[in-house]
Structures are given as C-alpha cells and as structure tokens.
Amino acid sequence: MRQARKYFFYTVFYLWVCPAIAIEQMNGKPAQTLVLQIDERQVVVDVYIPTISPIGAAILVHGFTRSRTTMSQHAQALAQQGLIALTPDMPCTFDFRCNARSIAGLVNKLRNTEEFGESVGRVMLVGFSAGGLSSLMAAETIGVVGFVGLDPFDRPASHKNELLGVATAKSIDVESLLIRAPASQCNAHSIASAWHTELKNLWRDELISGASHCDFEAPTDWICRMLCGQTDPSRQRMIRQGLLDAADRWMR
C-alpha cells in the first residue's frame, strides 16, 4: 500500500501543473453549457445533442485536475452516434465518492427529467484516469448499462489493505470495457490493472501497445504530452473505436 500511495502522489504531482490552460482547438462546440446543483454542489456540464432522436446517453469524466474540455471530442463522436453526451467538471479534487455522487446525479437527471432535451433510459459511463475510478463507483446507478475505463487510476481505500477500485469492481454487475496503456508513471504503473480480474461482467480488456496516458484524452495538450508521453493518431483511433463499439453494443 505504501507503493500505491507513492504512485498516487507522483501522479498528483505530474498532473497538477496548469491542468487546462492549453487544451488544443476542439473540432466543435457543445450545444449548451449548464451549471447544475447536484448533491449540494455546483457541477458545470457541457451537453452535446445528437441530430436524431437520442438512443441513450453517455457521461464522460475527465482525469485528475483536468477539465471537461479534455473529453469533448469523444463526446462529439458519441453524439454523432445518437447519444446525448455530457462532459462534466468534477466538483471534488480528491474525493472520488463525492464525484461518483455527482455522476449518479447526472444519470438520474438524464433518466427522469428533460433538462438535456429529452429523457433517456440507457446511460453509459466513460471515465479517464481518476475519472475512471469515480465512474466505476457510480456504475451501479439505476439506468447505467455499461462502464468504460480509459487507462483508469486506482487508490488505496481508507484504513483498508485494498485498493478502492478493486473493492468496488467486485460489486459491479454492469458490463464493462477496459482500454489501457502499458505501465507508466502517469497511470501509476497500471495500478488499476487488477480490475480486469475482479469485474464480474467484463466484456473486453484492451491493452493498446505503445499508448501513452495522453492518448486517452481527446483533445489533450502539450502539458500532458510533456509529462506523460506523446500521442499517436493510430492509437487514438483504436481508443475511439472502442467507445463507438461500446455505444453500439449497449444502446441497441
């Protein structure tokens, strides 16, 4: 556990610096940006609306100290597939349970209100890095039909000799997809790799050869590439295709 804590704080150091000052130009803009009150906290959400009647929804959660803009291109691609795509700014920096409650609140709004255009019955969760841990913890929310972990991160559970994500994975029944990079300092040396043995309904576990942590953001920025490795269009296409495959499978 000491080693896990070391990797956690190493990742904190690497990704704390100037988290979102240089996100590269996006290909499109959200239909709207909303400020919502969820679990007594304000959550800023960009909403991407499909041009057809929505077949479901996706909530895409950014990594540690990053922002909703780093998931915007993934959101645009899923909106083109007919999903209402939400990219929220997580309200809590270190509290993954707090962020999970915010994600669950968004799921409930998607299912039970028309705040995003119209209500939907099926929601998939997509989480990058630390956002993968928060999304995993929200995956049992009613209405969630699938979870995608993009090079996810894990951390020790408080006062327990077990990782928080590993403990959570044991109770998750929804179908899951993991898309991961090889071990590096920025994914805490694949600290979440044990999820694939604990998830009861794992659909696919994909290790993208040569991928950097930054390949999983869309768009990323020069800060991430400087600290966590260069990106490659062919690897990014594989990651994006995994998301589209998941949407096709879970929203039919």
Folded structure, characterized:
With 252 residues, the chain is α/β, with parallel strands linked by helices. The chain is 33% helix and 21% strand. The chain has eight helices and eight strands. It has an eight-stranded mixed beta sheet with strand order 1-2-4-3-5-6-7-8, sandwiched between helices. Helix 3 crosses helix 4. The longest helix is centred in the C-terminal third of the chain and has 18 residues. The termini are far apart.
| Beta content | 15-25%
In angstroms, what is the radius of gyration? 16 Å
Number of strands: 8
Order of helices and strands: HEEEHEHEHEHEHEHH
Low-confidence segments: 6-27
Q: What is the CA–CA distance across the termini?
A: 41 Å
Class per helix and strand makeup: alpha/beta
Mean pLDDT: 90
Number of helices: 8
What is the share of helical residues?
Answer: 25-40%
Rough outline: globular
Largest sheet: 8 strands, mixed
The main sheet orders its strands as 1-2-4-3-5-6-7-8
